[in-house]
Write a structure and sequence with these properties.
4-stranded antiparallel beta sheet; mainly beta
Length: 478
């Protein structure tokens, strides 16, 4: 009897159990000769809408309103080729944070402005930072825009769409007038809700007499909200918990009427904060930063580490994990995979600890860092993405339905390593939009046992035929 051997090849994607899990697909860069920073991206209308800010008046930028920065929106097709672009702003400075789809088929933008002209129709406090909301259609036309804030300065940090078609934004405020109903002292966490028509429905303040900084807010499945940030927890106000040391990471759970259900602070004796939040089936996961190596923090590597913490619905810690090296790391995005694992995007300066493959020769600059954790927080894989320049991202990550990702950040030097495009002016940052494929999705599968006669004998006069079911994207050779 002959022994039957077969080989299986994966033709779709290069794959190695010991190499990099994620491979770059298509990529494109956009910008001009001055600074262009991408902050967010959304997949919508069969392509990508990439949001950021620009100082350029040339290159891919067709119009500039003035001031140090304009909000800049780039529309691409499904493989990152530019279809059109548009700037928003006035003669003073604008900032940009978030973009996401609205329930009525349009788009929300959260930005900030100091202007009182151009696209800004009513800013009661000139030259003072204010939240700036825009609703645009699919071709970038402004449907409505609104500024909110007071005379003390209000700095947007995050926003989330709401189940009723509106938008909630959060940031830190030093105002006690204008649209700000309550001010406890110094900088407070200030939330404000708009409906789909741009009308203010409510605002809400979290804080005390010292500095309180929010970096994330999500609407929870029960209709309430979860807020994450950092606080020194002094006297007064409505934020209080058993502080661990310096400014602690803080998570506040609000019900649908903004009543505080619970407040939890997390960390050790140094500085800690929460910058990203997601809800999972049995609780929440937050990502933040830590400089502590005591209290609730274990495994600190040095500098600012990424700190990932799983908590239950009452805020109690289920597990925690420090990620990083001896320099600085910051988390920018958390996604949950279908197998229960977590994929994190961040930035790193390190060459040691959990970090390997950093492309930079200058330790003060950053590589984009991608990490995969198990459902229990154990490190599965990591890799650095970038060139020899300073490569970063902020909120700009899309988790696609096929399990792959598209990220929008900025690059400063190319072509080099992962960066295949050339900036308009090195080392001035340009938008960088790129696809990442998870090659474990294309790992070779084992075909079924071949079927056929148990004996093959040439004297029989009949050929022995053996069959095996075909598998997609694979070739089998005997």
């Amino acid at each position: 009897m002959k022994k039957i051997l077969f080989l299986v090849f994966c033709l779709t994607c290069g794959f190695s159990l010991w190499g990099q899990t994620w491979q770059l697909g298509w990529q494109n860069c956009f910008g001009g000769t001055k600074e262009d920073y991408a902050t967010d991206v959304v997949y919508f209308n069969h392509g990508y809408y990439m949001l950021g800010r620009t100082q350029s008046i040339d290159g891919d930028i067709s119009f500039f309103h003035g001031g140090p920065d304009d909000v800049w929106l780039v529309r691409t097709d499904s493989t990152g080729n530019m279809l059109w672009e548009k700037t928003y702003g006035g003669s003073e400075s604008e900032d940009s944070k978030r973009i996401f789809e609205s329930t009525d088929g349009n788009l929300y933008i959260l930005a900030g402005t100091n202007s009182t002209d151009g696209d800004i129709t009513n800013n009661p406090f000139p030259m003072t930072p204010a939240y700036w909301f825009l609703k645009i259609d699919t071709t970038g036309n402004i449907l409505w825009e609104k500024t909110l804030g007071g005379s003390g300065g209000d700095f947007e940090t995050y926003a989330t769409p709401t189940s009723d078609g509106g938008i909630v934004a959060i940031g830190y405020s030093n105002s006690s007038d204008g649209d700000v109903s309550v001010h406890y002292g110094a900088y407070d966490m200030w939330m404000v809700k708009l409906n789909a028509q741009g009308e203010k429905q409510w605002d809400f303040t979290l804080g005390n007499e010292d500095f309180d900084f929010p970096y994330a807010v999500i609407q929870t499945s029960d209709g309430g909200f979860l807020v994450g940030g950092s606080s020194a927890f002094t006297q007064g106000g409505n934020l209080s918990c058993n502080q661990h040391g310096k400014a602690d990471a803080v998570v506040v759970k609000l019900d649908s009427l903004r009543n505080i259900e619970w407040t939890q602070c997390y960390g050790g004796s140094d500085y800690d904060g929460v910058t990203r939040l997601i809800e999972v089936a049995d609780g929440y996961v937050f990502g933040g930063y830590t400089m502590s190596d005591d209290g609730q923090v274990t495994g600190w590597h040095g500098g600012d580490d990424i700190w990932i913490v799983k908590i239950d619905f009452q805020g109690s810690i289920v597990w925690q994990k420090c990620l990083g090296g001896t320099r600085n790391e910051y988390i920018k995005n958390i996604s949950k995979e279908s197998d229960g694992s977590y994929v994190l995007f961040g930035i790193t300066q390190s060459y040691d600890g959990d970090v390997s493959g950093n492309h930079n020769i200058v330790p003060e600059v950053y590589d984009i860092w991608m990490v995969k954790l198990s459902s229990e927080g154990e490190l599965i894989s990591q890799q650095c993405i970038g060139g020899i320049g300073d490569d970063k991202l902020e909120f700009g990550v899309v988790q696609r339905k096929d399990g792959n990702y598209v990220a929008a950040g900025q690059m400063t030097n190319g072509p080099s390593y992962d960066v295949l495009c050339t900036p308009y002016s090195t080392p001035i940052p340009d938008y960088w939009l790129f696809e990442l494929k998870d090659c474990t999705h294309y790992a070779p599968l084992t075909p079924s046992q071949p079927t056929g006669p148990t004996h093959a004998c040439s004297a029989s006069g009949e050929p022995a035929r053996y069959t095996v079911p075909s598998l997609a994207n694979q070739t089998h050779a005997w």
